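Task 17 of the worksheet. Students: predict the tertiary structure of the chain below and write it out as structure tokens. Keep your answer in the requested format; marks are given for formatting as well as content.
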Amino acid sequence: MPSEPPIGWIASDVQRASQSGGKLRNYVYGDAPSSDGYVGGAIINAVGRYYLSLENNDRFGPRGFQDVPLSDFADVRLWSSVQDILSDLRSGDAPRRIVVWDVVQLDGSSTFSVAAMAPDWKIVSERSVPVRNHWDWATLFSYRRLELVRNKGL
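Model answer:
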């Protein structure tokens, strides 16, 4: 049963998008609960840099994590509102597929509005990964991975 944020999976998605030739984009919520401690990993801190480094064949090593800009690891597209994603998709050639990582709180509220993407995009895959406290396995929040495809005719 996982307890840590799925940062390795997020880093893998970022790398896959970087190698897609523009057919796939990956968007990661930029204000996820994070710290360098347990259950605090995020793509923007040392934990994320570690996993991105693994995806890039350890180009930077442990000493390079904090010294190298995040953009040197991969094309990490951070977002804070759905408008950030929509604006990015309108600039230049839109990909056929996107992956959106967001945060779902215990009360069910989330950082991403699927309705804001309609009718241009539709969900083809959704998966939630609970992030738990190590000591009592209480769920703190969930990371949600949504894969969307562009509707035909766009």
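Marker's comment: The two ends are 40 Å apart (CA to CA). Residues 53 and 60 are 6 Å apart (CA to CA).
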